[in-house]
Design goal:
The protein contains four helices and no strands. By secondary structure, the chain is an all-alpha fold. The protein has one domain. The longest helix is centred in the middle third of the chain and has 30 residues.
Length: 82
């Protein structure tokens, strides 16, 4: 079963390279943004300075961040904290 699925995926990528490109972009976005947001969140909680906590909380509450998270979730299926 796994051999068939792998063969199907490879033949699909060979016949329609755009699928491979889309999958690569989705994977790259996931590899970048999930850990990045986790690192920023952990750093702001770890640091003794409370102004960065407020700045990060304000950024996460902003309409820009809400739109950004929606677009990432819709196009790349990346779920980061809201």
């Amino acid at each position: 079963m796994l051999d068939w699925a792998l063969g199907f995926a490879v033949s699909l990528m060979n016949s329609h390279p755009v699928f491979g490109t889309i999958l690569m972009v989705m994977s790259l976005l996931r590899v970048i943004f999930k850990p990045l947001m986790g690192i920023i969140d952990a750093y702001t909680k770890w640091s003794e300075n409370k102004t960065d906590d407020k700045l990060f909380a304000d950024f996460m509450a902003s309409p820009f961040y809400s739109t950004f998270v929606y677009i990432l979730d819709y196009f790349a299926s990346i779920k980061i904290k809201k």
